[in-house]
Design goal:
The chain is α+β, with helices and mostly antiparallel strands. It has a single domain, classed as Four Helix Bundle (Hemerythrin (Met), subunit A). It contains five helices and four strands. It has a four-stranded antiparallel sheet with strand order 1-4-2-3. β2 and β3 form a beta hairpin. α1 runs antiparallel to α2, α2 packs antiparallel against α4 and α4 packs antiparallel against α5. It is elongated and about 60 Å long.
């Protein structure tokens, strides 16, 4: 029996860096009084990709209540997220917390950008943007140090 290992770390780093650049572009548009819908869509797509490493979308069978064992999801191993300096500590919950928060904040940002001008709207937008940037920075920092995202498959 062989074990195949797939390392998703560089892919995750690419998504996070692309999101960081997208946030810069989006901030510029917001400061100019616009919203950049294409950039927002790209940010949402990449945030979902980051989240997929730990919480993949459900398959059709799972949505309809079938057990995972009888769907395509049974063949999909869950990636392991850990630090090379301490491989015994699971960072999956940390990853899910950060990436799901970014994903939710992006939807909140879409909602804020589509609201009519009001007192406090701009401050709310700025707070959301700052929090997204902070979360992306923490993800990139750990990815740059020694965080690894690996999937192991047994081949018989």
């Amino acid at each position: 029996m062989n074990i195949n290992e797939t390392d998703f770390t560089k892919q995750a780093e690419l998504y996070a860096k692309r999101m960081t650049a997208g946030m810069v572009k989006l901030k510029e548009a917001i400061l100019a009084g616009h919203s950049n819908d294409i950039t927002l869509l790209k940010l949402l797509a990449d945030s979902r990709r980051l989240l997929n490493f730990i919480a993949p979308l459900l398959t059709t069978g799972e949505i309809h209540g079938l057990p995972k064992s009888v769907t395509d999801a049974a063949d999909r191993p869950a990636p392991i997220i850990f630090r090379e300096s301490d491989p015994t500590k699971d960072f999956g919950n940390w990853w899910q917390e950060k990436t799901s928060r970014i994903h939710a904040l992006l939807f909140e940002l879409v909602d804020l950008l589509n609201r009519p001008e009001s007192e406090g709207r701009q401050e709310s937008i700025e707070c959301v943007v700052v929090e997204i940037e902070r979360l992306l920075e923490s993800i990139l920092q750990l990815l740059g140090e020694d965080l690894k995202i690996t999937e192991l498959r047994l081949n018989g």
